[in-house]
Specification:
five-stranded parallel sheet, 13 helices, alpha/beta, FAD/NAD(P)-binding domain
């Protein structure tokens, strides 16, 4: 007789494991299917984000930022260090230890909450059944009152740059480089490309980023993208736009990368090449022919606003469905779906999902850009405040960037916030909370912010929306 569960979750990434824990907390008999195992056959939980994405990349970014500070910035503070070296293998080892601790932590949470882990590859069958193919090729079919698909995404590969074991790498391979390359090529100037490029640029690598799009960070507010591009150029990143890679050739321990841009056919020679052109939903082998679950024209699972698929009782969350491919979006969808299954009235606000790029300075945003709002015909007022005018930022020697706040000209409601600066990823939460509660620019204007803090830049940007900024000259009012 097959096992039966109230909820079966497919995938133990940030969407799946959170959904499973929440469902179990609500008293639902819950199982989570995960196929990833380590070289010892032990289940690896946490998905791409925890193992080869968000967490390990931030560990490397933090290590290299500290090295860069010691190497380049300590002198201005009066700190002398002598010769500064970095042990790249030790840096990668630290990253691996952090990942292991967190994956073990998720396993502990499953145990504490009573989630049953089913090791193997999950497939949704008709009649709300899930087939689990184990690593010894045996199969088990379990029954589920409800199914949550959280299979995640995988890197997009491109024919001109087929991956190799150690020279042409995707994001996973990029996290395991153990020696500083002299020359690094990156295909794609998106989040992953810029973060990985920054890691090695700080260690002295000559980094060239090839981006096929004509505009830099076209999904960001133009002011944010312009400031970031200027800063990255100053840091030494060679970002080439409108550059389409046409082919690669491995010659010994080097890669010749051929591309076309406004100047015609070009090529560069690098020691490592990272392919970071985006991710696609992972649905291979996920849906049985009789599952009834529908995909859209881009290969995503079709869902409504509460992540219901075309089959009653079957939900899908995270990177396999529409919306930004972000861990926190997947997690919140997982909580929403678990609550709905339990009978709660749950809804998620897709207008308030923050995005962050963890370079230095960081880029962070929530809501709409000024360009989007103007295209929609919305009359807006904009307030900007530079960190160069922030006393706390000056004291920290971290004055690049600004806060840009956008409010509706008629209602004063905050419609978007865009930050480039040293702590943008932390600051953006303040704007997210304000927008979640439907705040106006005046609400932030009347809020007392501690001094001296970089958070005051949000306060000043709100004041600047009405030309009331105190610590920077206000723009002249339009007549």
């Amino acid at each position: 007789m097959s096992q039966k569960f109230d909820v079966v979750v497919i995938g133990a990434g940030p969407g799946g494991y959170v959904a499973a824990i929440r469902a179990a907390q609500l008293g639902l008999k819950t199982a989570c299917v995960e196929k990833w195992v380590d070289d010892k056959g032990t289940a690896v939980l946490g998905g791409t984000c925890l193992n080869v994405g968000c967490i390990p990349s931030k560990a490397l970014l933090d290590s290299t930022h500290k090295y860069h500070m010691a190497h380049e910035e300590f002198k201005v503070h009066g700190i002398s260090t002598g010769k500064v070296d970095i042990d790249v293998a030790a840096m990668v080892g630290r990253k691996d230890k952090i990942v292991k601790n967190l994956t073990m932590g998720v396993a502990g949470l499953f145990k504490a909450n009573g989630v049953t882990l089913l090791q193997g590859t999950g497939k949704v069958l008709g009649g709300k059944k899930v087939e689990v193919t184990k690593h010894d090729a045996s199969t088990e079919v379990v029954d589920a009152e409800n199914i949550i698909i959280a299979a995640g995404s995988v890197p997009v590969n491109i024919p001109p740059a087929p991956l190799t074991d150690d020279l042409i790498l995707d994001n996973e391979g990029a996290l395991n480089i153990t020696e500083t390359p002299k020359r690094l090529g990156v295909i794609g100037a998106g989040v992953i490309g810029l973060e990985m490029g920054s890691v090695w640029n700080r260690l002295g690598t000559e980094v060239t980023v090839l981006e096929a799009m004509e505009d830099f960070l076209p999904f960001c507010d133009k002011d944010l993208a312009k400031e970031a591009q200027k800063t990255f150029k100053k840091q030494g990143l060679d970002i080439r736009l409108n550059a389409r890679v046409t082919g690669t050739e491995v010659k010994g321990k080097e890669v010749v990368v051929k591309f076309t841009d406004a100047k015609g056919e070009q090529e560069i020679v690098v020691d490592k090449l990272i392919v970071a052109v985006g991710r696609r939903p992972y649905t291979e082998g996920l849906l049985g022919a009789d599952s009834g679950v529908e995909l859209d024209e881009r290969g995503f699972i079709s869902v409504d606003g509460q992540c219901r698929t075309s089959v009653p009782g079957v939900f899908a969350i995270g990177d396999v469905v529409r919306g930004p491919m972000l861990a926190h979006k997947a997690s919140e969808e997982g909580i929403m779906v678990a609550d709905i299954i339990h009978g709660h009235k749950a809804q998620m606000n897709y207008d308030c999902i923050p995005g962050i790029i963890y370079t230095h300075p960081e880029l962070a945003w929530v809501g709409k850009t000024e360009q989007q709002l103007k295209a929609e015909g919305v009359k807006v007022k904009v307030g900007k405040f530079p960190f160069a005018a922030s006393g706390r930022a000056m004291a920290s020697q971290d004055t690049d960037g600004f806060v840009k706040l956008i409010a509706d000209e008629e209602t004063d409601r905050i419609l978007g916030c865009h930050i480039v600066g040293g702590q943008a990823g932390e600051l953006i939460a303040q704007a997210v909370i304000a927008m979640e509660f439907g705040s106006s620019a005046e609400d932030l204007q009347l809020t007392v912010f501690a001094h001296p803090t970089v958070s005051e830049a949000i306060h000043e940007a709100a004041l600047a929306c009405d030309n009331h900024a105190i610590h920077v000259a206000n723009r002249k009012k339009r007549k």
